[in-house]
UniProtKB/TrEMBL annotation:
<feature type="transmembrane region" description="Helical">
    <location>
        <begin position="265"/>
        <end position="282"/>
    </location>
</feature>
<keyword id="KW-0472">Membrane</keyword>
<dbReference type="GO" id="GO:0016020">
    <property type="term" value="C:membrane"/>
</dbReference>
<dbReference type="InterPro" id="IPR037185">
    <property type="entry name" value="EmrE-like"/>
</dbReference>
<feature type="transmembrane region" description="Helical">
    <location>
        <begin position="144"/>
        <end position="163"/>
    </location>
</feature>
<feature type="transmembrane region" description="Helical">
    <location>
        <begin position="34"/>
        <end position="54"/>
    </location>
</feature>
<keyword id="KW-0812">Transmembrane</keyword>
<feature type="domain" description="EamA">
    <location>
        <begin position="3"/>
        <end position="130"/>
    </location>
</feature>
<dbReference type="Pfam" id="PF00892">
    <property type="entry name" value="EamA"/>
</dbReference>
<comment type="similarity">
    <text>Belongs to the EamA transporter family.</text>
</comment>
<protein>
    <submittedName>
        <fullName>DMT family transporter</fullName>
    </submittedName>
</protein>
<feature type="transmembrane region" description="Helical">
    <location>
        <begin position="114"/>
        <end position="132"/>
    </location>
</feature>
<feature type="domain" description="EamA">
    <location>
        <begin position="144"/>
        <end position="281"/>
    </location>
</feature>
<feature type="transmembrane region" description="Helical">
    <location>
        <begin position="236"/>
        <end position="258"/>
    </location>
</feature>
<keyword id="KW-1133">Transmembrane helix</keyword>
<dbReference type="InterPro" id="IPR000620">
    <property type="entry name" value="EamA_dom"/>
</dbReference>
<feature type="transmembrane region" description="Helical">
    <location>
        <begin position="61"/>
        <end position="82"/>
    </location>
</feature>
């Protein structure tokens, strides 16, 4: 069951990332974040009411609030990076988010083993190879790599914070709901300021885009749920490794739907980033 739930997580996260990046190519990334997370917040609110998850409220929900403050920054950076592309490089680099929980472990007194050190080294080499070809005469692509690294840090911070926000399944529903509400408030405020300054056009969402936005928001929520189930039914290490394959799903979707082609060195760098991620998780 652990493998099944974890693979479902990688599929959902990968497709959500692909959908969000695709939407951000024709709609401002900040609008995509706010609208998709608003839909997710409404659905999660209904789940919280049905399950009675309000009874799980406590001081630990402040971790969910913190995750909600960090999350929009990571999502905005990631969607902008995906819009710049290529997705086949951007998505694997974002999987380096797992380095953040490792760093938190170091602060708390844990010491990584040889495998984790190897993972860090391999991941760094992957970043250099995947980003290197973009640094010559292509400042936009350099921006995509930097945005992806910001997104990776944000995603990793959210993972670490949400892990502290709940200890039960119903508690997880409530924590995710609080996180989404904070996402919407934070992102909505940023969107309002951006519109007032004229840097972003007023939000205009075509009705035909609503299903895609709903899918992005709900797939992200569902992925959090399936990952929680995977971790509860078996080793967290196995769940983390299999769930970290989500960039492969995004890359395959980009290749299948957008016919993206990567240079050899880019593909090698993206592959090494994934290998480093796996080593970090298994170490």
């Amino acid at each position: 069951m652990t493998a099944l739930f974890a693979l479902a997580t990688s599929l959902l996260w990968g497709l959500a990332d692909f959908g969000g990046g695709l939407l951000a190519r024709r709609t401002p990334a900040l609008t995509v974040v706010v609208v998709s997370q608003s839909i997710a917040a409404v659905v999660l609110g209904a789940i919280v009411l049905v399950t009675g998850a309000w009874s799980e409220a406590g001081p630990r929900l402040w971790f969910a609030v913190a995750a909600g403050l960090v999350g929009p920054v990571g999502m905005l950076a990631f969607y902008k990076a995906l819009a710049l592309g290529p997705m086949g490089v951007v998505s694997p680099l974002a999987s380096l988010s797992i380095a953040v929980p490792v760093a938190v472990g170091l602060v708390l007194g844990e010491r990584p083993g040889l495998v984790q050190f190897a993972g860090i080294a391999v991941a760094v080499v992957g970043v250099v190879l995947a980003g290197g070809p973009h640094f010559r005469g292509a400042p936009v692509q350099r921006q995509a790599v930097l945005l992806t690294l910001v997104a990776a840090f944000g995603f990793g911070a959210v993972m670490a914070l949400i892990a502290e926000a709940s200890s039960t399944l119903t508690g997880l529903f409530l924590a995710l709901f609080v996180q989404r509400v904070t996402n919407v408030v934070t992102g909505g405020t940023a969107l309002y300021v951006a519109v007032r300054r004229g840097s972003v056009p007023p939000p205009r969402i075509a009705w035909e885009s609503v299903p895609a936005l709903a899918f992005v928001g709900l797939a992200d929520v569902a992925a959090n749920g399936t990952y929680s189930l995977a971790a509860q039914h078996g080793p967290v290490t196995v769940a983390a490794v299999l769930a970290s394959l989500c960039p492969v799903v995004t890359a395959l979707a980009a290749r299948g739907f957008l016919s993206e082609r990567l240079r050899g060195i880019q593909a090698a760098g993206a592959g090494l980033a994934l290998v480093g991620t796996v080593l970090l998780a298994t170490g």
